[in-house]
Amino acid sequence: MLKLARSSSTVGVAAASMHKLYKTIENEVEEPLQGTVKGSIPVWIKGSLYRNGPGMFEVGEHKFKHWFDGMSMLQRFHISDGKVTYQRKFLRSDTFLNNTTSGRITINEFATAASPDPCKNIFQRFLTIFETDDMSDNTLVNVFPLKDELYTTTEIKYLNKIDPETLDRTEKNVPAKKEGETEFPAGEIVFKTQSPWKIHFNYYHSFSMTENYFVFVQQPLLSNVPKILLGRKTGYAFASSLTGYPEIKNRFRIVDRKTGEEINADHVIESDAFLYFHQINAYEEQGHIIVDISCHEDTKVLERFYMKNLTSKEYEENLKNASEPEPRRYVIPLDLGKEEKGGDMVSLERTTAKCKKIDDKTFHLQPEILADIGLEFPQINYRKYNTKKYRYIYGVAFRHKKNPLTTLAKVDASTKTYIEWEEDKCYPSEPVFVPKPRGASEDDGVVVAAVNRVGEGDDDNSCFLLVLDAKSFTEIARVEFEGIERFPYDFHGVYADDKSLKKA
Fold first, then answer.
1. Looking at the DSSP assignment, which residues form a beta bridge with residue 101?
2. pLDDT, position 178
3. Is the dihedral of CA 89, 173, 204, 337 positive or negative?
4. Contact yes or no for 140/156 (Cβ under 8 A)
5. Within the chain, which residues score under 50 in pLDDT?
6. Which residues, at least 6 apart from 331, have a Cβ–Cβ distance to it below 8 Å?
7. Residue 324 CB-half CA count within 13 A
8. Cα–Cα distance measured from residue 382 to residue 434, given in angstroms and rounded to the nearest whole number
9. Helices (H), 205-260
10. For an engineered disulfide with 419, which of 78, 135, 403, 473 has Cβ 3.0 to 4.6 Å away?
C-alpha cells in the first residue's frame, strides 16, 4: 500500500482539538471572496462545489446536543479559469428564522428538544406542545441538483430550493406538489413494505440502486413509534426513540425499479449485524447484485457525535472505542433456487463474498472487505459509474483508530489497496470527485475537499480548499481565503457545472 504525507499526530492531539470544530460560524460571506491559489487548478474546471452542514450550535443561551442538530450553513466554492471564490450563508429556513427571532430552539431537532417559551407559564407551555405536529425544516445534511435546480435535504419531509449563485432559500417544498403545480417534479410511491416489528421501524439514511433494482438494507437500529409520538408531546427529540439491537441481523430487500415488486419477497436474505449510513455503489453482473457499503460493526457510532463537555482523555477513549467503518461488498444472486443447503450461491469470479443457503427460504451473506482501512463519506465517479461496475472509492479514512477523520483515502476495489492524503492537524470534508470532460479513465479528474486545520491554540487555526489529482491522489493545489479561519464542519456536498444549474 502506498501512503503519502504520513502524520506524526496522535489520537490525543486529535481529541484535544477536534471539539473546536463544533462551534458556531460567526460570519457569513455573501459576496464571492477571491481565494489565493497555491499550485495550479486545471482550467477545464468550470463549476461550483456546494457543501451543506451545521454552522450554528447554539441559539442564545440554548445549545444543541448533537452534530446532527445545528442550523444548516451552505457553502459555495466557485471554480473557473484556475481561480476560486468562496461564499457561505445560513439557510433561511422557517426554523432558523423562528430560532433567531425568539432567541431559543423553537422546534425539536434530531437529538435536541425545543426550549420552553419563557413568556408562557407552565400550563400554557403544556398546551403549546399539542398545538402542532410540524417538524423542523432545517435541511442540513445534503445538497443536490434535480434537473437544473438546487435543493437541500435531510431525513425529514422537507426540501428547500436554493439559488445556486446567492445561496438564498427561495422555496420550501414537500414533494409531490398539488395538481397544477409543476415547478417541483412530482414524485410517486414505487414500493411499500410493512415493518417486521409491531411498534418499531428500521432507521434508514440511504439506500442502494442498480440499473434495474432498488436495494434496501434493514438494519438493527430501530425507532420506537410510541416514543416518537410521546416525545413530540413531552419534549423529547427523535434520537431518544432509537435503540440498537446487535442480535438482530440485517435484511436485504430487492425491489424492481419498473414494477415496484419485491424480488424473492418470500425469501430472507440476511447478514450479520452492522450499522450503515452511506452506501457506496451498487451494480449488476452476471445474474448477481453487488452492493458496496461503509459498514460499522455496532450501533453506537451516533453516540460519539454528541457535543458533550469531555476532557481530552475522555474524548480520546471515546475515539479508541468507536468501531471503524469497513468498506464491504455484499453479493446477492438473483436466482436463489439452485444450490444445496450450506452451499455458496455466488458464482462470480474475483470476489470472496458469499451467499450461503441456510434453508429453502433463508440465505446468509458474507461480505468481501474492499480494503484494510476504515472509510466514511464515500464518493465515486457518479457521473459515469453510478449503478455500474466501477473501481475507485474516495472517502474520509479511519486508519486503525488512529487519527480518525484526519485522512483522505482512495481505495482501489479491484486490488484492495489504497492511497492516502494526510496533513498534520487537518480535518478534511467528504471528498468530491470532479470528472475531466471526455476523460479517458474512471479516475481521470480531480478530487476536491474543504479542509480545516485545527491547532492547539485559539489563533492556530486555518482552512483551505484542497485539490488532488485523482489518479495519483497527490496535491496539485490548495486555495486559502483571507479572513476565513474555519469552514463549517459539514456533511455532504456536490459539484455542478456552471451550465447545469439555472439561477433561481
1. none
2. 57
3. negative
4. no
5. 1-13, 121, 123-125, 128-132
6. 288, 289, 290, 291, 346, 348, 351, 353, 354, 355, 365, 368
7. 20
8. 9
9. 225-234
10. 473
Vertex 188: Cα angle to 187 and 192 (nearest 5) = 135
Reduced to 3 states (helix: H, G, I; strand: E, B; else coil), residue 153 is strand
Q: Write out the three cell numbers for 70.
A: 445545528
> pLDDT, tens digit, for every residue of 314-360?
666 666 666 789 999 999 999 987 766 678 899 999 999 999 999 98
What is d(CA 149, CA 93) in angstroms, rounded to the nearest whole number?
18
Cell representation of residue 29? 460571506
Taking the C-alpha atoms of residue 154 and residue 121, their distance in angstroms, rounded to an integer, is: 33
Q: Residue 314: in which H helix or E strand, if any?
A: helix 312-321
Backbone angles phi, psi at 426, to 5 degrees: -105, 140
Residue reference for cell 492524503: 421
For residues 260 and 170, give the distance between their C-alpha atoms in angstroms, rounded to a whole number. Answer: 33
Instruction: Give the Å distances, CA to CA, from 112 to 12, 65, 130, 211, 231.
Output: 28, 6, 18, 39, 11
Residue 298: which H helix or E strand, with range?
A: none
For residue 168, give the C-alpha cell.
Answer: 438564498
Cell of 215: 436495494
Measured distance CA(223)–CA(478) in Å, rounded: 43
At residue 240, the 3 state secondary structure works out as helix
The maximal CA–CA distance of the chain, rounded, in angstroms, is 70
Give yes or no for a contact between 184 and 174, defined as CB atoms under 8 angstroms apart: no
**The C-alpha cell of 390 is what?**
466501477
166, burial (CB in 10 Å: exposed 0-12, middle 13-18, buried 19+): middle
H or E element in which residue 406 lies = strand 402-412
CA proximity to 325, closest of 411, 222, 251: 411
Read off the amino acid at residue 41.
I
CB-CB neighbours of 443 under 10 Å: 23
Neighbouring CB atoms inside 10 A of 130's CB total: 9
pLDDT, position 98: 95
Omega of the bond leading into 413 within 30 degrees of 0 (cis)? no
d(CA 282, CA 388): 7
**Would you list the DSSP string of 431-472?**
-EEEEPTT-SSTT-EEEEEEEEEE-SSTT-EEEEEEEEETTT
In the chain, the amino acid numbered 30 is: E
Do residues 493 and 432 lie in contact, with contact meaning Cβ atoms separated by under 8 Å? yes
SS3 18: helix
- How far is CA 53 from each of CA 35, 47, 70, 73, 275, rounded to the nearest angstrom? 22, 20, 8, 6, 22
For residue 41, give the nearest of 86, 87, 79, 75 by alpha carbon. Answer: 79
Determine the straight-line distance between the first and last CA of the chain, rounded to whole angstroms.
46
